[in-house]
Amino acid sequence: MYDTVLVPTDGSDIASIAGEVAIAVAARFDATIEALYVSTDGSPEPSPDAQSEARNRRGQDALAKIEKRAADAAVESTTALVEANGSDPIYRTILDYADSSDTDLIVMGTHGRTGVGRIVLGSVTEQTLRESPVPVMALHENTAFSGDFDSLLVPTDGSDAAESALDHGIELALTTGATLHIISVVDVGAVAGSYNVEGVADKLREGSNEALGTAVERAEDAGVSSIESTVLTGAPGRSICEYANQHGIDTIAMGTRGLTGVERLVLGSVTERVVRRSPVPVIGTKATITSDHTS
């Protein structure tokens, strides 16, 4: 499922943690690690040559650490130090590299060093999550991950992006034999103060139950043998993270876009909140909206 795992690094602590998680994933799937350092302008060195040398030295040091850890884990690895593509944002350089290397999964931390000569890895991660056609596994400093995929969680709102995450979760469950947890969250608080609150809330519950039933049916039809499902009520981001904590979830898969309006939670923004709070890694997937869901 994952043959090539890309881990961008800026040499920061969270990038180092992302490297460890990427290596654990690669070991689980017998994949190759590709460590990437994107060199940018902004070094305090007095001359262009000194700036370039300083940036390259930092990049080589960061890449060497990941390369050594991969070797210690008996995981095959390659490294690349590339210059940012002119005025393009750093995440675009990462995505261009991922495309050229046939990456199956990008693993990134949500915080990184700031200041001259280093990328702000947190903001880059969020941009990558929004734009990447490749699944992105995001994590933060307190993320726990053992390399196991025994319990997977996929929240759904019935949107195209949620369906994309469900497809990824189904494939992951079939590949690893994991239990697939599928939930839908009724965000009643989002319509507080609205006219006919109870009527709107009932419509939300109906939509959540419909989305959940459709998702479970798809997972069953695909051959997933162990499925747990439920509808929750509450703030979506908090509810998803609490469920993950309470049920020993190893990884969460979520879409990076979702339907808007009173009928559905805005799954993209919820994904970003979950990434920041989740006790486990979050795999973000993106889908192109092809139906009338954009209304």
From TrEMBL:
PANTHER family in UniProt: STRESS RESPONSE PROTEIN NHAX (PTHR46268), UNIVERSAL STRESS PROTEIN UP12 (PTHR46268:SF6)
Gene (UniProt): uspA37
Record protein name field: Nucleotide-binding protein, UspA family
Recorded family membership: Belongs to the universal stress protein A family.
Cited InterPro entries: Rossmann-like_a/b/a_fold (IPR014729), Universal_stress_UspA (IPR006015), UspA (IPR006016)
One Pfam family hit: Usp
Domain UspA: 1-139, 150-283
Highest taxon of source: Archaea
